[in-house]
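Check out one such.
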Amino acid sequence: MGRILAIDYGTKRTGIAVTDEMQIIASGLTTVDTKELLQFLKSYVTKENVEKIVVGLPKQMNNTASESEVYIQKFLVKLSKTIPEITVERIDERFTSKMAFQTMIDSGLKKKQRQNKALIDEISATLILQSYLSSAR
């Protein structure tokens, strides 16, 4: 089995999370400047055995796509050309940013640490991945 990598795509920064080889535990990996995302992914999949990439699907409360979906679709086209051998799946990511912020509060992070948007993106990616793992079981 290979790892599953999750992406919380943003126009400036992108949070990334990954599972262990057994696909049991979801852990935050890093936050990458979105301009460098494809290069980071290409490099990562050459070093690690990645079986699947899960990309968050941002929806609004009425179930329509959010405005950021336009950018994600463009990214997905580039991703499929850059790393065509890896399957990409989508999963609803509603509320992940709010849940990430609440997770930071619950874990006792100070206000200054909770303002770190990169950390919020990484935690959001972890929540997306955890949600995917739960739905796959």
Remarks:
- The chain has one domain: 3-136.
- The radius of gyration is 14 Å.
